[in-house]
Amino acid sequence: MTVSCRTAQPMKVRALDEGSLFVNDTGRFFLASDAFAQRLHDDALSQAETDELRLQGNIIDPDDDFSLHSHAYGIAERLGGANSLDYLILVPTLRCNLDCSYCQVSRAGVNQRGFDWSDETLGGVLRSIDELATDSIKIEFQGGEPTLRPDLLRTIIERCERFAHKQFVICTNLQNLSADVLSIFDRDDVYISTSLDGSIAMHRMQRTGPLTDAFLDNLSSLTARYGPGKISALPTLDPRAPADIDEIIDTFSAFGLTSIFLRPINFQGFARKRHKQSREQDEGWRSYYERFVRRIIERNWLDKSSVLEESYFSICLRRVFQPGADRHVDLRNPNPVGVDYVVIDYDGTVYPTDEARMLARSGVIDLSIGDVQTGWNTPERLALNEASTNQFDPSCTVCAYQPFCGRDLIDDLARYGRVDIERTETEFCRKHLHIFDFVFEPIYSQDPAVRYSLAMWLRLPAIPEQLGVRIS
Amino acid sequence: MIPLSLQIAAEPATPFVTRLRLRPNDHTGPNDHIGETDHTGEADALFVEDDDGGTLFAGREGLISIDGFAGHQLSGDVLLVDPGAGRAERLLRSGSAHNTLLVTERCDQLCVMCSQPPKKTHIDRFDHFEKACMLAEPGSVIGITGGEPTLYKPRLLDLIEAVLTERADLEFHVLTNGQHFDLADVPRLRAPLYRRVSWGIPLYSHVPATHDFIVGKQGAFDRLHDSFSALMQAGARIELRTVLTSTNLHDLPALSHYVAARLRFVESWSVMQLENIGFAKNRWSDLFVDHAADFTPISRAIDTSLLHGIAIRLFNFPRCTVPRAYWALAPASISDWKRKYPPPCRDCRERDLCSGFFEWHPDEQAGVRVTPL
User: Fold this and answer.
1) In a domain, B189, yes or no
2) Where does the record place the Radical SAM core domain (chain B) (predicted)?
3) Which phi and psi angles does A348 have, rounded to 5°?
4) CB distance from A72 to chain B under 8 Å?
């Protein structure tokens, strides 16, 4: 619903339990009583109320050049800045030394031939790195299991010496730690990302089987070797039977891991066909998610020695208050593909996202946008990017959460095979309507435990007196 | 205090700019490898000898004798030598991060707490300053202040552009009241070299009348916003500055909402404690607010700013007077040459990171308030 009156900018409204949430296009928001909403609608605000709205950036005077431009600046700030390419997701090999239950497509056997970069592909990747126009670079090594080819990791990392700011993330199952791999991990600019599926039992069942102890030993020794900040782990959970919440938190805490990115299994290919219900998350998962976040709020309050967070909740929370502060490519708007980051597969094919790579592997749809030899400034990329914004979507333009939300056309294609499905009928929309409703609830909470966790997740030095403006 | 003015004797009849050097082509010297316009060292005066009373340098303009210093103490300094007055100003001191050029003493505002009360007359020294900047150490940030520098906006912008075109390594920080920019400036200020210029601009309250009262000029708030509009459209870098006085202390929380909502284009917001000099000296008891006694208005402003991604900082706030959570926001902001630490600071662990006090801060107040950390 949108509301407009003579004095105020158009604002979008969402009904929450405690009142009406008004949000303008710059993402400025306040929670108002029904009585205020009525006065706003009737153009009957008091002078004090008008002054308050003006102070908060909700009144734009069309005759005032400053207020118009200030408002325009606020909108521009909300529009994600996908600029120069400086983020590469590289798959040097598709081979893997594990055989996880839900990974039917993105791996090849450890001894199979023809699933590593050829010399030509390596040359193409190096040339792509050399041609980057930025002084910063982030490289994420995916697989397969990238540590099967430490020689390739080293070649790529050494080629990035010229960049002033560089960061390398190695996504690894930590199954084998050779001295060679360890010496790469030891670099200050190298970060390690692994999987830890909630509980040890679940991890054993879904991933490592009899090899579980080797993984746990390696994870322990690395967390001891590097301390916090170097290693992150993601739990992949079966949404039909997610692990016990405290068990997940305890498992992560035991390794000093405080950021937990709850990730339901993303079924692909055959699995998706077998489990129709897995195409979308249901109320059961959403309610589990809420219980999880509420539980870490409680635990943060009881034990202040460390701050636990659910990563995606923090990302959404920060997007509410701090435009442009986040570069999470799954949630931004517009979200063009093949601009500031690309995936280069084991055979040199270029995909817009890792999800797109999986979709192609599983035969759902080929979303490749080019290859490393001839580039990816292709008609395919342009066609995808036609739909890469939520700005003009009829459902999004009346949604209060539009300034905070994003667009993920690959997700739409994955689930529905098209990008023009009515937005509110998509899983992306349902998921984010839920999460932003769930984000605004604690924003207006008076509970000191809630306010403490929110301040920590927003990286604030102290707890603000209020997070959101409330008008009664 | 570090002296900024030197007693000198020199031969020429007119003032000139020179850089002091211990040796010719001194490759350990500041300027030999980058952006050097003066390859021949023509503007340099070379060290001759120290004697009992001072030191002697010789350059194109002849001999310069300087009292009270040894040559190595001044090596690398860029001086504006005024032989007639027997004085030289150390325009750019070697190794200092706080070099500031005072381009005029005229101003069209009259702030109640002005640290540098304006004068009616203007002595134009832009040509000297431009020469001095060309000789600056590599990578310097040069401050420009007044008075109000933009009263001479065309000449000021000429200087900035000439220097930054010649010297790709330099930056300027200009203190201005923001009363003189308009849309006609936008094309000029959009030039890429202005990415190396930041404008320090004061805003004292979100209430127009309060701001106008503090700066002593009716309509100043509105005019300032016209300038903001132009600077925003030019993509200018703005450091917003708010000096605390008893008049605006309690506006600070609302001002922080205003900054977070309407002034999002600023690069940073500096909340500044008062300086006991100029007009503030005689009005000290009326104007000064002891933030340590009630930090609430300031902490609320900080919390709101950081929540909304505004980079707020506390200038001239000794760390022991600030709650620990906010220490990281209170840097050593006071310029080296006018900074002091009272005796109790001797053993403080935070001293090197702390603003300390202005040289002219009342000792009885400074001493009382210090709690070594």
Assistant:
1) yes
2) 102-237
3) 90, -5
4) no
Give the per-residue pLDDT at A358: 86
Of B295, B315, B335, the position where a domain reaches its end is B315
Helix (H, G, I), strand (E, B) or coil at B7: strand
This complex has an ipTM of: 0.91
The reply to whether residue B328 touches residue A465, judged by beta carbons under 8 angstroms, is no
CATH 3.20.20.70 fits A87-350, yes or no: yes
The answer to whether A57 contacts B261, with C-beta atoms less than 8 Å apart, is: yes
Is A325–B309 a contact, with Cβ atoms under 8 angstroms apart?
A: yes
Residue type, B144: I
Give pLDDT tens digits for B136-169: 999 999 999 999 999 999 999 999 999 999 999 9
Chain B touched by A461 (CB under 8 Å): yes
The alpha carbon of residue A440 is apart from the nearest alpha carbon of chain B, in Å, by 15
- DSSP letter string over B84-98? TTTEEEEEE-TT-S-
Contact pairs from chain A to chain B, CB under 8 Å: 68
CATH number for B142:
3.20.20.70
pLDDT digits (tens, 9 = 90+) for B179-199: 999 999 999 999 999 999 999
- If asked whether residues B113 and B52 sit together in one domain, one would say no
Taking only residues 304 to 363 of chain A, the set having a beta carbon closer than 8 angstroms to any beta carbon of chain B reads 321-325
Within a domain: B350: no
Task: Report whether pLDDT(A3) > 60.
Answer: no
Residues B165 and B259 in one domain: yes
pLDDT at B34 over 50: no
Q: Which of A258-272, A339-353, B53-67, B170-184 has the lowest mean pLDDT?
A: A258-272
The answer to whether residue B300 is domain-embedded is yes
**B117 and B255, same structural domain?**
yes
Is the pLDDT reported for residue A58 higher than 80?
yes
Asked whether residue B354 is assigned to any structural domain, the reply reads no
Instruction: Report which residue type is found at B36.
Output: E
Q: What angle do CA B59, B63, B64 make, to 5 degrees?
A: 100
Verify that B141 and B280 share a domain, yes or no.
yes
Neighbours of B13 (CB within 10 A): 8
Same domain, B247 and B175: yes
pTM of the model: 0.91
Interface test with B, best of A23, A26, A53, A55 (most B CBs within 10 A): A55
Domain that includes residue B84, residue range = 5-92
Domain residue spans of chain A:
1-78, 87-350
Please say whether the beta carbons of B302 and A463 come within 8 A: no
